[in-house]
Amino acid sequence: MSREGQKLDYAAAGGNGAGGVGIGVLSLDLLGQVLDRLREPRDRKACRLVSRAFERAEATHRRALRVLRREPLPRLLRAFPSLERLDLSACASLDDASLSAAIAAAGAGGLAGLRRVCLARASGVGWRGLEALVAACPRLEAVDLSHCVGAGDREVAALAAAAGLRELRLDKCLAVTDMGLAKVVVGCPRLEKLSVKWCREISDIGIDLLAKKCPELRSLNISYLKVGNGSLRSISTLEKLEELAMVGCSCIDDEGLELLSKGTDSLQSVDVSRCDHVTYQGLASLIDGRKFLQKLHAADCLHEIGQRFVSKLATLKETLTALKLDGLEVSDSLLQAIGEGCNKLVEIGLSKCSGVTDEGISSLVARCSDLRTIDLTCCNLITNNALDSIADNCKMLECLRLESCSLINEKGLERIANCCPNLKEIDLTDCGVNDAALQHLAKCSELRTLKLGLCSSISDKGIAFISSNCGNLVELDLYRCNSITDDGLAALVNGCKKIKLLNLCYCNKITDSGLGHLGSLEELTNLELRCLVRITGIGISSIATGCKSLIELDLKRCYSVDDAGLGALARNAFNLRQLTISYCQVTGLGLCHLLSSLRCLQDIKMVHLSWVSIEGFEIALRAACGRLKKLKMLNGLKTVLSPELLQMLHACGCRIRWVDKPLVYKDC
């Protein structure tokens, strides 16, 4: 518990060291404001548990709720009548019946204030549940149905009854067609934000109707749709459109961009990444005359850049803040021209651009001193000279990506650390940096993300440097840093207690003792332990009992992890949603116990579990049917598992990925 939480916990219990009154005399409004200022969820929970006054205050004051299991949903909706935001994306097994029952339990008007609902990946919810939700929430403004792969026109039609809807996400709702989109745009004419990414049954016809019926649209994502230039002609009529993403729209070309350029001048952000038929000439047409364009993303689509495009970029000198040109062949003169023409840039993306040199980067940053994000991934010609230029000019730098820039070393990173105190993220994957580099980077006390994958020279000493001063670190990637031992993990947890994402794959010197240290990371959500051959169920037990926030765990090829480790997960890892146990030494009994106990588990990869019999797979999968959304198994199981089970999994919205490898199992 944080220091603030400890003080409030003490006060809530009635103690103040001077015989005064307890916290219960304060008004509910004031107590609610106090709860709002507690950053840690566990602190709010502690106050709620020790003080009924805080409990009452939260009941009337709480505006947002994220539910992990469907069973307590009715009680929670009754307990918090003032909710405005409800997140059910991680609510395992949620279906129409349970959602409708929870809504009914909230009572008449119980959800009247609800404005935003997230149902992403809630594949069990269909049109009946959505109809009940819309009927109970007259003020509904935003709904997220992304990755509900079974959602189709009938589900979308249910949402059309929410006339006040302003934001809708339908990413990867694969069954939505022009008909469903028509229902929404007719029923919800005040839409301001819409994303139909990967809804590949939507055509130019649907987009044309959208443009006619929703004049208030400000943000639109049509990425990976099979729409053509006709859609851009329709979109050009949207006078208030500010953001347009059309990533991977392979049927769009320069003609479409020219049509778009003849319309509204309100565009502030355009993303044409991976549009194979777009050239610099089309982008030049789009840019021409744009007074407000702030972000232009053209990653992995351009093969060359002509002078016309560069000259048009210069017209955005006062507005353009973000430019991504990943995968382009560039030159020093081009980078100099970008620097001269776009000196207000805050973000530049040059990932995998060939031809990026120290001279080019120096000329760019000399004129773009406001840069906060610089992506030089795989720009393998740059050296410490480029880092020196960045350090000298970009004092406000927050994010620097240098993956596979193998010519840099600790000297260049020392300049970055000394001159860029606001650095929050740095990617040094496959750069071969050593402990001395980490000693310099430890000066960056604001560091949140540090990626050191494939840096085999990193040792426990370097981790100790980082731990000594980077207490705000949230993400650490040590993939294949095989010199790291248990002592390094002990040093890490001593100073970096806020870590949420940790990658230790192939760090094969780590044992159960190291995992014992990790057990003290209460905020850890994602842990990758692939191919740690020295760990056993004992170490997994330490993780399961200590890391209560764990959501994703990768144990692939941890050959000594057995039923004991899975049993600890089954008893303690209540929030676990994604698990990989391929090649682990588990039996059918252990697998059945695991899948029947983890009520939040939605995604499991279990390839080559040779100690699990066919019957063991059958029983375990039946125990989890209704909760699983993704499943990865050997292809050989497709013919031996009962068709009834496979049909049941499919009906519950579970997508199975079959791996084409030999099936080996022992009947235990």
From TrEMBL:
GO cellular component, one term: SCF ubiquitin ligase complex
GO biological process terms held by the UniProt record: SCF-dependent proteasomal ubiquitin-dependent protein catabolic process
SUPFAM superfamilies in alphabetical order: RNI-like
Top-level division of the source organism's lineage: Eukaryota
Residues annotated as domain F-box/LRR-repeat protein 15-like leucin rich repeat: 417-597
Name by which UniProt lists this protein: F-box/LRR-repeat protein 15-like leucin rich repeat domain-containing protein
Organism: Digitaria exilis
Taxon lineage: Eukaryota, Viridiplantae, Streptophyta, Embryophyta, Tracheophyta
